[in-house]
Amino acid sequence: MINMKKDETKKKITKATIELLKEKGYKGTTTREIAEQAGVNELTVFRHFGNKEGIIQAIVKTTSFSLEIFDKSIEWELEKDLTNFGYLLLKDFDNNRDMISIALKDPLIFSQAHEEIIKKINDTKKILKEYFEEMQKKGSIKDLDCCTQAEIFLSTYWGYFMYKLNFGDKALHADYQDMIKNSIKTFVKGVSLH
Fold first, then answer.
1. What is the pLDDT along the chain (194 residues), one digit of tens a residue?
2. I need a surface site. Which of 132, 134, 149, 155 has the fewest CB within 10 A?
3. 151 and 83, same structural domain?
4. Beta bridge partners of 141
């Protein structure tokens, strides 16, 4: 019961921090404001996280990417697998939109958050690279640099997500589904042996 209350308090503090950071930025947000927004005492913030940077670290650590699911759902059919991967990738970017947005506003202040996001992107790239390597062994795709192909694939989705994050839907021709469908067809045509 005590742990549940502790977890609930931490969630309230991290949620309040995200809201304030989006509104005021890192320098404009104080631990006092975070405490007020979360409905807790400022000492509670310090007890749970130490300082503002501690809250940021906790938020980043709870940022999750569901790409482990990709490993379990691979069917070794290029178009189907990459479509699934594209959906998971955009879903993860969207689920972590606030943290990504905050971290990219000031990479020096959010260096730890920035590093954690880079680590998660590199982990994602590794999963995709290994998938492409296996597809090469199976004779399903051309003999291309798998790491570069993974980066091209990720860059396409990262670019789409950033475009949407910065400019909204009004600036985009394709919604998520159309973007995934069309980009996968183009990508598969470029790497496939058939």
1. 566 778 899 999 999 998 998 888 888 899 999 999 999 999 999 999 999 889 988 887 777 666 667 777 899 999 999 999 999 999 988 888 887 887 777 676 667 667 777 888 898 899 999 999 999 999 999 999 999 999 999 999 999 999 998 888 888 888 889 999 999 999 999 988 77
2. 155
3. yes
4. 192
Length of the chain: 194
Distances (CA, A) of 135 to 85, 143, 187: 15, 10, 14
The CATH number that applies at residue 39 is: 1.10.10.60
Burial class (CB in 10 A: 0-12, 13-18, 19+), 141: buried
CATH number at residue 127: 1.10.357
- From 45, 62, 79, the end of a domain falls on 62
Taking the CA atoms of residue 115, residue 116, residue 118 and residue 121 in that order, the dihedral angle to the nearest 10 degrees is 180
Claim to verify: residue 138 and residue 185 sit in the same structural domain: yes
Do 26 and 92 belong together in one domain?
no
Residue type, 40: V
Could you list the residue range(s) of the whole structural domain that residue 180 is in?
Answer: 68-191
Which residues are within 8 A (CB) of 191 and not within 5 positions of it... i.e. 6 or more apart? 78, 132, 141, 142, 144, 149
